[in-house]
């Protein structure tokens, strides 16, 4: 008879491969009327089914990794506050295969209108300029709008058909214990969590201290990825969970953060804002543009939302007599708004949500704990002003950074305990600096609202680049390797943004086989695969062509790489080799290239979609990839792209040893 | 006690508004153990749930029109043969709101490779040229590939949530009677149909005489839009149907066509083809391009499909010894293919379907019957060679043409019986000539395959335009009105393709309110609304501005139009007034325009999305709409666009009487 996992008495649970007959957990069903249920074993327990938790779970589609997500909410978020999606977040959705659905529902932001006080000393505000919301480096729209609940909807529906991922709503963890004695061993379940059902008071589903109108879940909808029906008494899931890893995606008031003794460092600011989502009845002409309305009494940020709504961030009596947000009334917030927007009217059609808050700018002192068996993601470890639209985006991007590392680890692709821990440690070493930078940026950004600046437009454009994540560069690690002999990051050593640690800049090329154009990030689906991307130059030239052949033959035969680039079985290779050339397509014969560039499978034929050309497309113009990436068409280069689309290494085009070195450094197989 | 509708004893059933107590049909449930069920009343009975039937049904989303679709198949098509989607068909999907899903799954066709015999007299074929598959008039990809079952899937899922539309699979009509005595009265149900359950032999779901591998439905899945569950004994739907209208979308062997005594006119050709869908193992370099492989023994058309498949249309011993398609074996077809494709190899990975056929080129002598109470759509009234990819496209377009006319009629928007019939008659007068043109085209197209032509590339490009539907022009009628005083169609009288009877050429503009770019057809959702599209010119100029104001005020106050353009209630107007100007956006104040251009609703705020500017967009360049449509920026014009995106009238910009005349001609309210 299995013994019970009691909170507070941590013990190490081994999985099937290692289980002795005395294993405390059984894989066989137990009659519930005979004894309390044994613990359920999962590979990964995610606390919180918001944007971060769902984004994390999406990494485990198509695997046999058991994932359990618990959330105290009674069901999917009926209305979240976040709405803006940066293009880098949209690239993540592309990689998850939900880009088209998200894009179809989203609304693009095209321009920013700046309004200010009249130069002639008259009253009221006037339009000063309209700034196109365009970042040349991106080559595509920088931000789109889709409300959080729809973003969550698409991420949720993308995992529902995967039996290995289960979601339990109205469920909260009440204790967690980690057996540190076995955290270094693979295939152990050191995390013990006890769960309880939450009887939801539908008036408190929103954890914020908002004092306005809230929308709530109206039904306690249960989603269970394994059987799709609401559990009843006889198949009630166990409330004891044994997990290999636990991740807290449980928001600003994270329960897991408290259990892990992680503290948030930073301060409350002295900025108090009202935030209002309403259908406006207003004669203000730019109501469907992002507007900065800069008057003497402060700056309103106005953002158009879906359903004819706009959101306004309204400064309320900043400066001397700082009010307590709790004392603010809707009328007082709207009065402050009307004062700034005058001479234009601002009547209220309907209000779907409003709140008042003082900005907290804080970052967790740890992002992972307990030998990388427990992690914190998103709002759980950083809070800041919502104005830059960074909450949902950064949460999703945190999760995206962590997910592939857990996936590789849990699939047994990382060979040693040390290498596993090295890889998982990069979550904190990569994402904590991003959060710290974000707070630093946020302080400056808030100042923009406090006092009109002479360089307002320049600063806004800088801010747009920053908030899109274009300045993020992860430090060197096992997953970000600098060229041999170079130990310091140095952009001057390498070209443009094609440097280790940065996101692979997106670019548009056409498929060699059929001329169909694609953005590269759309092609890089989140399969957990690395990509070795060979920018082979003009391979109609015999030197470049021979070089590409030699590289292809080497990769396909290399003792250390062969099994990851060309696995014997029908399974997907861990490393996909891609070619981007810049020759005329009709001078290139795809099927004459080495097999690693167009592998054959008896089951499904040739893979025609690994070779790309940087040429004019029939309908969409020329992507000019080599030019954008500043790659010499004669010299070329080879880039190792991580499963999350960040650059792991930049090498000379034929540096096959460099490729071997990268994967040896990662210790994957 | 209601009496039974007996097949062969037609009787006129009136609906609730006209029902006497002696009405043979009751709206109230009857206990099934007391008597045989009474007939079920529906507004529209659609026979066949293929592309045509589903496209037709999509017109009735969001209405209270009761639609019943029956199909003898046990469930959705698991695999249809069609795959190509013309851009004009994709515009229909856009209008149905499923464009993004369809596009996301589709594969674009970018280019066409022409191969021919060697000029030097050597053996085997060589690539002669690659023609970009680009039609300048379209400005967007001309054709995409998505297999029929997925196309049907998206159309089906788009109607499932609408309670007014029901689908019954495994159900076939066995008799139909139309009471001609009341076909002129509105709100009568002259069509009586008796249905029966079909016990499906899963080996005969495909009605074609194919002799190859077929995929079949594996489950007898029932979809019932009204209650979503499989009917059981106690809530079995009645098998007697009384309908206002019946439409046969039941394919080449149409049951309804036979009942209506419609005959197909035309011939079997002397061309015998094998058609094969396979995963090729071939070293032919253009296997992912559309290819015409022209050898002495005939021309193969090779089309890449999804899932690494290609389709080949292979001529088999054309000329003297014409084989019977039934005698052809797969090996014989493949041998013919290999002979043409030599010196390249063509081995078979796997075959998902193959068939052999002789082309029939026939058109029905009627498209509607019985005072426009019964209609035939798609393959039911025209068959032709599948090579031009016209089957699924023309079927969907037929249905799209008919659907809005039935919708208007069934919603009671057409005031007189005569006007209703005039409108419904335009289905035949508009679509039958299209089918006849298609057959004429098909004859020439087939010749291209029989004998190599010197002008092959020119003819192919001409064919591309034709098959995309760009030459379709509907004749004058109540729905296509020529300018006053002009009775003959004459392109020379009017500019470019902006002429009555043609599809509104698609163009890209940006929304005045927010700068977001859109293609116009994406904006023209299939709501059944007409659009009065005012190309107002440069309204930063005071003359043009005043003109636009005057037109807007007139339309909003006109006795005959006011209630259709600005209904009192919250209901959607039957006519949406749109403005496309070419002024700089910042010189235009949207909210200062007359209300008809930006109406207010207490429920949902301003409608900001009726005014467009032909200007440079922030991310997508300049759509140059005025230039493409050849509209003079000083003069402008006003276009009445029908609910199906075809042009009803082209008028002078301020010809408000012309607008009144159009809707008086249609007799709608």
UniProtKB/TrEMBL annotation, chains A, B:
Source species, domain of life: Eukaryota
Entry-linked PANTHER family: PHENOL 2-MONOOXYGENASE FSQG, TRK SYSTEM POTASSIUM UPTAKE PROTEIN
Record organism: Podospora pseudopauciseta
Pfam families the record matches: FAD_binding_3, Phe_hydrox_dim
Positions of the UniProt region annotated as Disordered: 1-21
UniProt key word Aminoacyl-tRNA synthetase: no
Domain Phenol hydroxylase-like C-terminal dimerisation: 472-666
Keyword annotations from UniProtKB, A to Z: FAD, Flavoprotein, Oxidoreductase
Keyword Flavoprotein set for record: yes
Protein family: Belongs to the PheA/TfdB FAD monooxygenase family.
Protein name according to UniProt: Phenol 2-monooxygenase
